[in-house]
Amino acid sequence: MKNILYVTPEAAPFVHTGGLGEVASALPGSLNSRKQKDVDCRVILPLYGSIDPKYREQMEFLGSKKVRLAWRNQYMGLFRTTLDGVTFYFIDNEYYFHRDRLYGELDDGERFAFFCRAVFEALELMDFVPDILHANDWQTALVPVYQFAVYRRSFTRTVFTIHNVEYQGRYGKDMLGDVIDLPADMNHLVEYGDDVNLMKGAVECADIVTTVSPTYARELTTPEFGWGLDLIIRRNEHKLQGILNGIDTKSYNPSKDRAIEAFYSWRKPAGKALCKAALQAEAGLPAADVPVMAMVTRMVPAKGMDLLVDRMDKILSEMDIQFVLLGTGNPEYEAFFPGLQSRHPDRAACMIRFDSALSRRIYAGADMFLMPSRSEACGLAQMIACRYGTVPIVHQTGGLADSISDCSLGSGNGFVFSRFSGDDMEDAVRRAVQLYGDKGNWTALVDHDMKLNFGWKKAAEQYVRMYGRLEGEQ
């Protein structure tokens, strides 16, 4: 039995802001549900104040300790609960985690340095001895560093997964003594240029570094996609592996999803038309038999927003198509899309907010799903779209390249453009609209996409093999 402690700053359904939160529940659940029963994967995360009381009421208090963080000695409480076959541990400290939001605080570096220290101290309160500590993104990057430089637990190995290399945990060097508190001869592990870079330290110290798609793993070694860490990643390329994420196919299931207008499946597809009509009505669009193209996204440059600003007016003026967008992000984009709606009131509906239930109604009701990302580590939305019979239109990058292939030549599951440009995005949308007019072939494509299996089983097996190599078993 391999014991894995999955260290994460968030995990659904307790608290999550994006893909990492979904992965932090789905992957451990998939590992634990395998027939072989040779992995016990548990999860540890902060006990945020925003966690629903219904979950808090189910938690068992395991004990408390003091955690030293440089000159501080801070309280740490440890709680435990079990959900869907996975044990979750929660690190309690109200000063650091009883706040309105997970990230974006001025003391984030201190908060998550405390969390990483607390993970090691919490091990003494558990009836669980992990063979592998699996850390994720910059918030937990100090776990491999502390294991290598401070705790040195015998027979404990570390994995570090990069979900988004753009956010690296960069701080001034005053953090070294005031917060991080490594032995003086180990400070070089997190120093990078004139800064402290926590992700750099994790890449250097972890036994294996993974990321969330094979293509993204290759991209990270290049200056274009490495965001200044490409030199460090190339130096550690021998321990880099890309494993494509999956999606929770039980949660994202149009035949059982109570958030949508009508149930449907590839066997009984009629409900999708009802979902489309309901989405058009909710979005204030005419109930026309034209393709509905949708986006559910963060409005940031990495998601390709500049291409939309450049081309959406032209696309909506020249093509018989409707466009639905849901998301929040940078102010300049949040300002652009209501203007787009006002210029094309019968063709565009833009909802500037976060709404999980509405996102599901969009997946179910749209015909096409646009993801023109400049970079995309993995992406889950394109897989969810396929699950709901909504054909993806994507830029060929990262996990989009690994999960979506172009169907223009008769095979594939979506429409792909390889060059990040407005012309190429517009061409992909035009090809999708043309195929939509061929009802027989469009129906066959939708049927094909809904039958695809983007579940976690394949990825879980790859993780098990990776853990096995780390333990010297394979």
Give an overview of the whole structure:
The chain has 474 residues and is an alpha/beta fold. 38% of the residues lie in helices and 21% in strands. It has helices at 19-32, 53-56, 94-97, 108-122, 142-151, 175-180, 198-205, 214-219, 223-226, 230-235, 271-283, 305-318, 331-343, 356-365, 381-387, 398-403, 422-436, 439-451, 457-470; strands at 2-7, 39-46, 60-69, 72-83, 86-92, 132-136, 157-162, 170-171, 191-192, 195-197, 208-211, 240-242, 292-299, 322-329, 348-351, 368-371, 391-395, 415-417. It is globular and about 65 Å long. The model has no long low-confidence stretch (mean pLDDT 96).
How many E-type strands?
18
The assigned CATH architecture of the largest domain is 3-Layer(aba) Sandwich
CATH topology of the largest domain: Rossmann fold
Question: What is the name of the CATH superfamily of the largest domain?
Answer: Glycogen Phosphorylase B
How many domain modules? 2
Report the helical percentage. 25-40%
How would the global form be characterised?
A: globular
CATH class of the largest domain: Alpha Beta
Which strand-content bin applies to the residues?
15-25%
Summarize the biggest pleated sheet.
9 strands, mixed
Q: Ranges with pLDDT <50 over ≥5 residues?
A: none
Q: Give the spatial strand order of the biggest sheet.
A: 3-4-5-2-1-6-7-11-12
Give the termini distance in whole angstroms: 14 Å
